[in-house]
Structures are given as C-alpha cells and as structure tokens.
User: Which sequence fits this backbone?
C-alpha cells in the first residue's frame, strides 16, 4: 500500500473518492418520487434510511449500489493502476461515501461500501465479514451490533487468511465505521438501541 507511487496515490484516491461519493440513496429516492431522503427518518443517505420510506426495492437497490461503488473503485484501480492503487482507491471510495463534499460531508455510515471494498480486495475475507454481520444480528437482533462486530472482525479474518498486506486498510476502515456509529454506540451503552422485530433484518446502515 505504501509502496505505491505518490502520483498514483493521488490519482486513484481522487477517482475513488468521486466514485464513492455518488449518493445513490438520494438519487434513487428522488427518481422514484419518494422525497428528500435527508428529511426522512435519521436523515442518513444509506439503505436503512431508504427502507424507512417504505420502498423495499429502493432500499435493496441502494444497498447493492453502495456496495458496488466500493468494489468498482478497487477493481478499476487493480486493473488499470500500479500495485497498491486498489487499496487507496477503495479507502477513498469508502471515505467518499461517508463524507461526500457535495452533501457538506454528511454521508452514510459506510457499512455497505465497506463490505464492497473488502469483498473486492479479498473476497474470502469479505464473505467472512458478511457472515459475521449476519450471525451478530441473528444473536442480538440489533443491526448496529452486526455492523460493528463485522467491522471489528475485519483484522481478525485478514490475519487468519494470511492477508497481512491488507491489515492497515482494514484497521482504517474499522476505525471509520466505529466513528460513524458513535451515536449507536451511545445508545448501546444506554440500552436504548432499537432491536429488530420478528421480520427479516434490515440491510446494514450504509
């Protein structure tokens, strides 16, 4: 990652940020006439808040596209860039989703994009992170616990899968996920974080 030429880091970071900062949740809800997503529920631009509009298809599309843009940034950089460019592009796409300049740096919580980045960087690690999220949600019935547990497991899975080259980016992704979930952490400590009902769990807050 740190052996990448400086110019390549700059180019792929900018491109990754631009790809990651596309607010698919807002684009989809506006296209479908569902209103301004930033005025719905938590105001978040991710799939969970899109689900609060009552349109499951829009939520599913947002989840897939938010994950796909993280994966796309990684795969394009791996295909066209030098060694290490994929990690910089993936990290920048993730940051772009969480802090998009055109939305005054008020983006999503990053879980879907994080999963897309990890799946593209190392799909076995990504699948294990997805499985960790599903297991944590099934046990606790709290979506944010699933997201936080999956993020925390990233380094563990990278270590056991021998992907030591990805542990720096894994640490950075996890740190930002926890930062973006600070309100959820406060509610978890207070015991007020809402639980999922008997219906299927919502997509991760993206």
Assistant:
């Amino acid at each position: 990652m740190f052996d990448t030429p400086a110019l390549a880091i700059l180019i792929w970071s900018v491109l990754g940020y631009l790809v990651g900062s596309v607010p698919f949740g807002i684009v989809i809800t506006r296209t479908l006439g569902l209103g301004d997503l930033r005025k719905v529920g938590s105001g978040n631009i991710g799939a969970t808040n899109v689900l609060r509009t009552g349109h499951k298809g829009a939520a599913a599309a947002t989840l897939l596209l938010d994950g796909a843009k993280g994966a796309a940034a990684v795969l394009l950089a791996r295909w066209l860039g030098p060694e290490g460019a994929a990690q910089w592009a993936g990290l920048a796409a993730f940051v772009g989703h969480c802090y998009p300049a055109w939305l005054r740096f008020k983006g999503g919580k990053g879980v879907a994009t994080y999963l897309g980045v990890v799946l593209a960087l190392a799909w076995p690690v990504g699948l294990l992170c997805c499985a960790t999220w599903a297991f944590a949600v099934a046990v606790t019935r709290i979506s944010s616990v699933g997201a936080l547990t999956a993020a925390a497991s990233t380094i563990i899975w990278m270590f056991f899968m021998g992907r030591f080259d990805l542990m720096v980016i894994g640490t950075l992704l996890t740190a930002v996920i926890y930062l973006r979930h600070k309100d959820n952490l406060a509610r978890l400590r207070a015991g007020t974080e809402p639980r999922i009902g008997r219906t299927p769990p919502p997509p991760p807050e993206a």
Observations:
- The CA atoms of residues 169 and 204 lie 20 Å apart.
- The chain has one domain: 6-190.
- The chain is about 65% helix and 0% strand.
